[in-house]
Amino acid sequence: MAQLGRRYECPVCNTIVLCTKAGDGTLSCCGQEMPVQQPRKLPSSD
After folding, report:
1. CA–CA separation, 8 and 13 (whole Å)
2. Do 30 and 13 meet the contact criterion of CB atoms below 8 Å apart?
3. How many angstroms separate the CA atoms of 40 and 17, rounded?
4. What pLDDT was estimated at residue 43?
5. Distances 26 to 1, 23, 31 between C-alpha atoms, Å
6. Judging by beta carbons within 10 Å of its beta carbon (0-12, 13-18, 19+), is residue 8 exposed, middle or buried?
7. Any idea where the domains of the chain sit in the sequence?
8. Is the pTM of this model over 0.85?
């Protein structure tokens, strides 16, 4: 199920998709399912 506000990244071509409307099913690209992109750590402001 595609989750609203989540980013999905293709492991083959590195295409990134932002989900703007939640729905049933899965996102796929290059013949493979696109996993949810993990959040990046922000640099320290110290």
Report:
1. 12
2. yes
3. 16
4. 87
5. 6, 9, 12
6. buried
7. 1-36
8. no
Q: How far apart are CA 46 and CA 39, in angstroms?
A: 21
Burial 11-46 (b: 16+ CB within 10 A, else e): eeeeeeeebeeeeeeebebeeeebeeeeeeeeeeee
Beta pairing partners, 16: 9
Q: Are 16 and 37 in contact (CB under 8 A)?
A: yes
Residues 1-46 have pLDDT tens digits of: 888 999 999 999 999 999 999 889 889 999 999 999 888 888 887 6
Reply yes or no on domain 1-36 having CATH 3.40.50.300. no
Q: What is the pLDDT of residue 16?
A: 93
